[in-house]
Amino acid sequence: MISNNNVHYDPECNCNDHADSCFFNPYVYAATGNVSGGVCENCMHNTEGRQCEFCKLGYYQDPEHQINHPDVCKRECDRFCASRRNLSIYIYIGECLSVCL
After folding, report:
1. For residue 77, what is the enclosing H or E element?
2. Fewest Cβ atoms nearer than 10 Å: which of 13, 46, 62, 92?
3. What are 3's strand-pairing partners?
């Protein structure tokens, strides 16, 4: 807990089980109407965002998993290939190179 001018700030945050630590940001605290100033650090499992609540570029949120599941973010090319199994094509999305069979 951080104290400043008799106001107590708690950096506790909800990282959706994708980060082990967070820090207090006074600007985020003010932007949320003094509700939460916690910002997650080093989001894992291909997530990003203040609460590790978004999938990184090149990934999509698997609708079969909750946001706190370690396999929630899947590569975009995996989704594309799964929908195009009958085609033998090469696709390139970001750093993802796949052959769809």
Report:
1. helix 76-83
2. 92
3. 8
Exposure string of 77-100, with b = 16+ CB inside 10 Å and e = fewer, is bbebbeeeeeeeeeeeeeeeebeb
Model confidence over 58-79: pLDDT tens digits?
A: 888 999 999 999 999 998 776 6
Q: Which residues contact 93 (CB under 8 A, 6 or more apart)?
A: 58, 75, 76, 77, 80
* CA nearest to 79, candidates 95, 66, 67, 61: 61
Rounded CA gap, 98 and 21, in Å? 34
Residue 93: per-residue pLDDT: 45
Question: Which residue ranges make up each domain of the chain?
Answer: 2-74
pLDDT at residue 6, as a whole number: 38
Q: Does the 2-74 domain belong in CATH 2.170.300.10?
A: yes
What pLDDT, on a 0 to 100 scale, did the predictor assign at position 1? 41
Amino acid at 53: E
Give how far the C-alpha of residue 22 lies from the chain's centroid of Cα atoms, to the nearest Å: 14
